[in-house]
Amino acid sequence: MASMFIDSIAIAVADNGMDREVRYFGTIPNRPEALHAALKKIGQDGSELRVCYEAGPCGFVIYRSLAKFGVDCMVI
């Protein structure tokens, strides 16, 4: 899950399914390459990534970026 501000994206991760505790991964620059690098690091063990974020005033920018790179993403 990502929380997007003008300059940054805050990322939280629910490892091993939705029954586990969510942990804070960190804050990254609001740039597609930074988001892709973070997701690559999160999924480096081969786990399936499912991304969800709440669309704010910037709408579907994150969704379009992730879709371009083949990442499954849900917008709420």
Mean pLDDT: 84
Tertiary shape: globular
Class of secondary structure makeup: alpha+beta
**Strands side by side in the biggest sheet:** 1-2-3
- Tell me the major beta sheet: 3 strands, antiparallel
DSSP strand content: 25-35%
How far the N terminus sits from the C terminus, by CA atoms, comes to 10 Å
Integer-rounded radius of gyration: 12 Å
Spell out the helices and strands N to C: EEEHEHE
**β-strand number:** 5
**Tally of DSSP helical segments:** 2
Query: How many independent structural domains?
Result: 1
Low-confidence stretches: none
Explain this structure to me?
The longest helix is centred in the middle third of the chain and has 11 residues, at 32-42. The protein has one domain. It has 76 residues and is an alpha+beta fold. The strands form two sheets. It has a three-stranded antiparallel beta sheet with strand order 1-2-3, with helices on one face. The protein is built from two helices and five strands. The termini are close together. It is 25% helix and 32% strand.
